[in-house]
Amino acid sequence: MVKVNENYLKFPGSYLFSTIAKKVNAYMIENPDKKVIRLGIGDVTMPLSSAIVEALHGAVDEMGAAETFHGYAPDLGYGFLRETIAREDYSSRGCQIEADEIFVSDGAKSDCGNIQEIFDESSIIAVCDPVYPVYVDSNVMAGRTGTYDEVTGKWSKVVYMPCTAENGFVPELPTEAADLIYLCVPNNPTGTTLTRDQLKVWVDYANETGAVILYDAAYEAYIAEDNIPHSIYEIEGAKTCAIEFRSFSKNAGFTGVRLGFTVVPKELVRGGVALHALWARRHGTKFNGAPYIIQKAGEAVYSEAGKAQLKEQVAYYMRNAKVIYDGLKEIGCEVYGGVNAPYIWLKVPKGMTSWEFFDLLLEEASVVGTPGSGFGPSGEGYFRLTAFGTYENTKEAMERLKKMPSLRK
Ligand code: PLP
């Protein structure tokens, strides 16, 4: 009789976003006259920009003619896109990343979930807490995380690096041994970042200890401040200790289009083995290339028109972020993020739990957010609002929050 992968059975009962959906559906059934505004989503809402739509149309036409038809794409990505990325995302920022160190994929989620496969089963993972749940969950599936404690909300073998208001959302170096260190900058859900100097501490640590940093820069396009690096390779020494993940989802609205890439520098060697060769092998065996049409759309992201249009999209969302940030401040909340990221992270007022605040917001304002505890134990007592809605809805949501009887000072 076949045996299932029992690691899957270790997950705690309910999944954050399905619990939210259930609560919102029940509320809408009970309150059919209320207009619910969703500020919980991490999905974009603006349509693709015209430069991208044109590139998609052009590529579809090519696929319809024998002379320009494309079959399987190269496993690791088309040269035209890898070279464009190397030039626009890296050379332009003074990082020496070669086109063949860039692996094009269908998005950052797959890559940050799959990367753990090239490391030994015994590797200890360290994660910022709270953070994007994929890092821990993919390691749960692989059997690296030990057992789950319902009371603490922690896995026994995971090293948690709390990021809270108390430490300015800057993780401290682990005191226990850690092999794989996941860093997400700007961070989902806190919207906070690390400066060049703060990141240098991690690069030096990884080079000294032989750890590998798995650096998720999916929200890089939202960085506004000069002292925040857009890539970990801006930091000296990063090429010998870090893998970087990027996405086209949030900078270009590709959440439904699907495109991303991972950078594995050739100099990154552990146990005498180049990780580049392992990831190339893994990618080549299990992934058959992102579609030509989509890679052409990705190339258009870097065209002059594409860059200008996407800068406007990011600015639109960041205007929402400011509306949320300022609105929350006005009602006396403790607020973080929202400056270099489309996420606003607030301290839940009046000692409520994250879920109590979720219920209150839904009940009194018909606004949906995301309870911080869903992103890790240190997220308890916090709440995430996102800037990915429309400006009108965002403004209306904040007006409603300002009127909430329970939030009045
Ligand atoms: N990384 C982080 C930190 C995210 O928040 C998300 C999506 O919300 C992703 C990766 C997924 O990116 P993609 O759409 O490219 O799979």
TrEMBL record:
Which keywords does the record carry?
Aminotransferase, Pyridoxal phosphate, Transferase
> Which annotated residues bind substrate?
15, 42, 109, 132, 188, 288, 384
List residues of the Aminotransferase class I/classII large domain.
34-401
Tell me which positions the record assigns to the signal sequence: none
Q: In its keyword annotation, does this UniProt entry include Transferase?
A: yes
Q: Which residues bind pyridoxal 5'-phosphate?
A: 72, 108-109, 132, 188, 219, 247-249, 258, 288
| GO molecular function per UniProt | L,L-diaminopimelate aminotransferase activity; pyridoxal phosphate binding
Query: Which cofactor names does the annotation list?
Result: pyridoxal 5'-phosphate
The EC number(s) this enzyme carries: 2.6.1.83
Residue numbers bearing the N6-(pyridoxal phosphate)lysine modification: 250
> Which reaction equations make up its catalytic activity?
(2S,6S)-2,6-diaminopimelate + 2-oxoglutarate = (S)-2,3,4,5-tetrahydrodipicolinate + L-glutamate + H2O + H(+)
Query: Taxonomically, which superkingdom?
Result: Bacteria
One BP term from GO: lysine biosynthetic process via diaminopimelate, diaminopimelate-aminotransferase pathway
User: Which pathway, per its entry?
Assistant: Amino-acid biosynthesis; L-lysine biosynthesis via DAP pathway; LL-2,6-diaminopimelate from (S)-tetrahydrodipicolinate (aminotransferase route): step 1/1
Q: Which InterPro entries match?
A: Aminotransferase_I/II_large, DapL/ALD1, PyrdxlP-dep_Trfase, PyrdxlP-dep_Trfase_major, PyrdxlP-dep_Trfase_small
Q: How does it assemble?
A: Homodimer.
Record-stated family: Belongs to the class-I pyridoxal-phosphate-dependent aminotransferase family. LL-diaminopimelate aminotransferase subfamily.
Please explain the role this protein plays, according to its UniProt record. Answer: Involved in the synthesis of meso-diaminopimelate (m-DAP or DL-DAP), required for both lysine and peptidoglycan biosynthesis. Catalyzes the direct conversion of tetrahydrodipicolinate to LL-diaminopimelate.
Q: Which HAMAP family match?
A: DapL_aminotrans_1
Protein name as it appears in the record: LL-diaminopimelate aminotransferase
* Native source species: Lacrimispora algidixylanolytica
Gene name of the encoded protein: dapL
